[in-house]
Fold this sequence. Notes:
The structure holds 2 protein chains of 2 kinds. By secondary structure, chain A is an all-alpha fold. Chain A has 2 domains: 5-56, no CATH class; 69-279, MetI-like fold, CATH 1.10.3720. Helices cover 78% and strands 0% of the residues of chain A. Chain A is globular and about 75 Å long. The N and C termini of chain A lie far apart (52 Å). Chain B is mainly alpha-helical. Chain B folds into 2 domains: 4-11 and 15-39, no CATH class; 55-303, MetI-like (MetI-like fold). Chain B contains 13 helices and 2 strands. Chain B has helices at 2-39, 56-63, 66-97, 105-117, 120-130, 137-144, 159-184, 188-196, 201-229, 233-238, 241-244, 255-263, 269-303, and strands at residues 41-42, 51-52. In chain B, strands 1-2 form a two-stranded antiparallel sheet. At the A-B interface, helix 1, helix 4, helix 5, helix 6 and helix 10 of A face helix 1, helix 3, helix 4, helix 5 and helix 7 of B.
Amino acid sequence: MISTKPLKNIFITLIIYMVIITASFIFLFPLYYVAVIATNTNSSVFADVPPFSIGPNLVNNFLQLLHKVPIGIYFINSTAISVLSVATKVFFCTLTGFVLAKYKFKGRNLIFGLILFTLSTPKFLLLIPLFNMMIWLKWINTYLPLIVPSMADGLGIFLMTQIIEKSVPDALLDSARVDGFSEYQIAFRIGFPLARPGIAVLGTVAFIASWNDFMFALVMLPSRHMHTIPVAIASLMNTAEKDFSVMMMATGVAILPLILVFLFFSRQIISNLLAGSVKG
Amino acid sequence: MIRKKLKEKDVMPYVCLIPFMILFLTFFLIPIIYSLVLSFQKLGRGSTPPEFAGLQNYAFILTEDTYFWRSISATVFLLFMGTLLPHLFAFPLAIMLNNKSVKLKGVFKVLFFLPFMTNTVSAALIFQQLFSLNYGVINFLMGLMGLDKINWQGDPNVAPLFVAILVNWRYIGWNTILYFAGLQGIPKAYYEAADIDGASTFEKHLSITLPQLLPIIFFAVSLSIITGLQLFDEPFILSGQFAFMGGVKNSCLTVGYYIVWLAQKGLQQPRGAAVSWVLTLLIVSLTYINWIITRKLEGRTKERPNAN
């Protein structure tokens, strides 16, 4: 006897796969197209039939990029800002989060309220005052405006508080006190190492945010030699003689590090980002 | 000895909070107060000190400033067509991805996540290329199907839609993964009970999935409201950056774009500050409305008698 149920199920599964694969294709194709343009000649971009497959011109385009654009400097700027921003943010947010999660003290709720207040404030409200402040401090065209104001990031502190509350057992801290550790030793020798899962979450989120940041980098780093990669690409788009292959090569340089990091750690990154957002 | 320890435990939190307090005061509280003050001022040329102008800046942007109202309409359009529309795609996609018979869920999750990882400037450049008037893949394919070319970037009626397409590309996958994570938290027993009652798939999603996911829907929609009202990168890149102020007829001038524009013009900064306060008010009130709606829906699903 043949029932119709399995047939119907197979049909439904087939449709689901078709939809999901189509969606994946739409998500992936623009990224694949970076590779297409970056490996073809600039003139093939203007052909009657646009290129659809990987071309032979990768090395040449890369040399062109090095020749026309100081991409090395931009790469160093982006990397330095991201690394310094992540390191300082992780340090201050972990310290603040540890104290908020593990100590009862007067004013704790007030501090927590302040943090929630910063979370609900749009970045555009801070743009003009911070811009003027940076001019006054003479920090324009330095890395500092992209590092210092976000060191005690509200979201980061909130995240670390939540995670440390769960992942650092109070009993361990108490036994360290009995062993004669000072409170500062407890924070740095026990709190920080035990907060590693949280540090990984915050580190990835902060790195993505800093590497991809455009608006603040655009406003705070107007000088050409201080551009980060996103700002550099944006200014390349503004030049009269656009070389699309070179621009796409630069885009590849901007995207590739994140995609590589992401493919290696995708499982952790996705679950971490969700832990930070859904459960937080 | 013990007394000394206790003391240190009481002092230590405050010492550790000093860096946070300094950073909070310097780079958050003072700037916000300064922004509020600035929004009530009129700046003078040269060394003339700023004057108190009352509500003049607010009155100007709300009644006379055509750029402001254009930016509001572009922003509201992009909020709905750019960041809220993805939810209509993401919800069914998440349910499909969560289907038992789908293998390689991890791989699909990675593919769905890639657009969100791509920085906005690169994504905008790629889309500009794909949707280019004469040499783009999209217009080429439309030509093959016998359709007319569309001037995605030059036509002020189409340009906001073009920006919205890019924003959809970036956020559909992200929202799908948010909902997918939420779906995995729903106990399987609920669906089994509904199966025994003979509920159809659609009924099951309406009576189990939707109410169970309400907290995540609220969270995801709130995020989309906040991002949607603050869109800057995509419209800025796709409509000519500082040179064109939102493209033809300012069709892509979002509120954020307008604020960045005004920030660069020394004397118009008070107007920029006023616009940024209006934007803040808009974000807070829309998030609040979203919260009210979610609570109403939660109440309704609770009132409904149990499926059993």
